[in-house]
Design goal:
The chain has 112 residues and is mainly β. It has strands at 3-7, 10-12, 18-25, 33-39, 46-52, 57-60, 68-73, 78-83, 92-98, 101-102, 106-110. The strands form 2 sheets. Strands 2, 4, 5, 6, 9, 10 and 11 form a 7-stranded mixed sheet that branches.
Length: 112
C-alpha cells in the first residue's frame, strides 16, 4: 500500500527558509516521478517541482526556480523540498504526489 507522509511545514518570515519532507512507502523509487504541489485558498492545486528517474532529474515551476530545490534520499525513502527566499505568495498547503497518490499536506505560511 502506497503511503506518502509530509512534514516540515510551519510559519516563517519572508526571506526565510523551510525544508519539507515526504516519507514514502509501498513502492520503490526507480524510474518513477515524484512531485510537490501546492494549493492556496481559493486556487487550484499547482505543480511546484518534480523529480524523475533513477538519476533524479529535477524540474521546477517558473515561480520557484532558483529558490526551491527538490531532492530524494533512496535509502531513507524520502523526497525533500528545500525552500529558500520564501515570499508571502508561497503560502499554501504543500502536497507530495506519486502517480494517483497524495499525502495529507503540510501547511506553509509565510508572514511577518
Amino acid at each position: 500500500q502506497v503511503q506518502l507522509v509530509e512534514s516540515g511545514g510551519g510559519l516563517v518570515q519572508p526571506g526565510g527558509s523551510l525544508t519539507l519532507s515526504c516519507a514514502y512507502s509501498g513502492f520503490t523509487f526507480n524510474n518513477y516521478t515524484m512531485s510537490w504541489y501546492r494549493q492556496a485558498p481559493g486556487t487550484e492545486r499547482e505543480l511546484v517541482a518534480r523529480i524523475t528517474g533513477a538519476i533524479g532529474w529535477p524540474t521546477y515551476a517558473d515561480h520557484v526556480k532558483g529558490r526551491f530545490r527538490i531532492s530524494r534520499d533512496s535509502i531513507a525513502n524520502t523526497v525533500y523540498l528545500v525552500m529558500n527566499s520564501l515570499k508571502a505568495e508561497d503560502t499554501a498547503v504543500y502536497y507530495c504526489n506519486y502517480q494517483d497518490y497524495w499525502g495529507q499536506g503540510t501547511q506553509v505560511t509565510v508572514s511577518s
